[in-house]
Amino acid sequence: MPPGPFGLDPVLWAILRLLIAVLLAVGLVFNGALAQIYLERKIQAIMQDRVGPIHVGPWGLLQTFADAIKLLGKEDIRARLTDHWFFLAAPAIVFSPMLASYVVLPFGPGILGADLNVGLLYLTTLGSMTVLGIVIAGWASNNKYSLIGGLRSAGQLISYEVPQILSLVTVVLVVGSLSLTHIVDAQPGWQILALYLPLAFVTYFTAGLAETNRAPFDLPEAESELVAGFLTEYSGMRWGLFFVAEYGEVTVVSAIATTLWFGGWHGPWTDINPVVGPVLGALWFTLKTYFFVLVFMWVRATLPRLRIDQLMSLCWKFLIPVTLINLMVTAVLLLVFPDTHLPVAIANWVLLVLAAAAVPFFQRRRLVALRQRLAAA
Amino acid sequence: MTYDLIGAVLFALLTIGIVAAAAGVVLINRITAAALFMAFAFLCNAGMFVLLGAETIAMFQVLIYVGAITVLILYGVMFTPQSERAYGLFFQQQKWLAAILVAPIGVAVGMLSFSFRDTGRPLAGGGDLVALATSVFRDFAFPFEIASVLLLAAMIGAIVLVKRDED
Amino acid sequence: MVVPIGAFIAVSAILFFIGVAGVLVRRNAVVILMCVELMLNATNLALVAFSRRAGLADERGSVFVIFVFVIAAAEVAVGLAIVLSAYRNRPTVDVDEVHALKG
User: Fold this and answer.
1) If A25 and its partner were Cys, which of A46, A102, B26, C15 is the partner (CB 3.0–4.6 Å)?
2) What ipTM was assigned to the predicted interfaces of this complex?
3) Does residue C26 sit in helix, strand or coil?
4) Per-residue pLDDT reduced to its tens digit, B32-45
């Protein structure tokens, strides 16, 4: 084990590094959540033709701090719960896997927590542990609406894991490694993987929207349905923790999308200087990630909410066949043409156009029924 | 404080975790608490796998067991609510007889398990994902196909069993 | 001080014994399924311990473990489906009371 600076004992240095990494990750998550809460309100306001927060601080920038102070000051309501320890543990179970995902994200060349050679598998595993926390939150609230909301959300999450993982597997097939640094290194310059695998990106993004319980898949936590789903009994900072976990998960999904399909930290001038280069790389990474976060918010402001059966049929009847066909075609083409990636790219773009054109085909029964109802009326 | 001692300390902690969690599953009355203890036992098992140097298997363990099977069991628990009463026939009159019968078996199993010898170092093979995947898809392709057919049959069977008879 | 392989096998045996005790003692069908999962975990631990420490330097132990994962998942799914459909018949999951085939 390497000794620390000033000849520090190696074990102490390892523990100190761990502490610093955890503090950095927590700081990143909370600051990111602060930024995203403000961004969400402003962007939703602009898209809905209003102003958003303008009173607290210049351009309403301190609004999030006001929100945080309000949340911290709320009364901790102790309803008659089925189990107090489960109620307390649920936000932690939802928050911890999201926090642990930040350690493998490549923020810049050489700037990452741990270069696991199974990085994507690690991220997938952590994404599947959130479901447990939501089921426990729904059950521990001793409230039938929370229970239904929690179970529905769990069903949604486990259903949408499948297209998410299949899209990731398509990228792994083309790159040949699960390590996130290898995936970033496989996209030098302008040859981002989004040019080769656009359909995988679209399905991953849609599945990511559903995985993070964001609109239009936010039925479990919507305010007009089921009171607030599994979040009903949580008030104050406990709800704040769920909220931060959701924004953190949005950032992780955007970061994975950036890394896998848009070159990660690649950008102009990342190799001019051993010190300035990585910082610029981190800057490009953050900009690209926040671009996708903004797309998340744009989708939330634009699309109406899906019902639970529409959501499930979208997953099982559309996304899973599409991702499976994508995976199969990519695998076959990679076997037949092992040297170039051009056939894979062509096939993927063709599949993307076909999938987009097939959407009305999947809605045809509903359209026929509508037409019949209109004709009968 | 040497590096090797950390391995032994972690092993002791994980053993306590596994045994306590398993005992919790068997002894606790409330089923949801038992399900969460089971999830904790799965997590400690994954820790054991990491300690043995099989990190990919550990991640599969967490992904499949904690991520999917625990949720499945929690669904099962919540859809079959029972009134709150003692769920187990704990410690009936036969407990001393059972202890007397199990003790020699336990001793024999302990002696058997500690009689295995190893070099103490993890082997060169194993744990690498590429080698594992190559082995599954090349040497064991036929069992892999059978396992996928089994999963398909299980999925269809489970759906058919639970479907209500709607007219 | 490296942990000897016997310790891992002993832990696996203890876990298996507790699983068997749970299957025999508990009456709730879902808890019995949970204890069966504990037994399968014990098997996995023993397999991985042998494969990583004392076997041949190849992948067969890990492949076996993956197949055990698959079969455990399938078994839990079908087992829970059976429990749920039995629960619909008579609202009980007590295995002592589900004896309609007896006599």
Assistant:
1) A102
2) 0.91
3) strand
4) 889 999 999 999 99
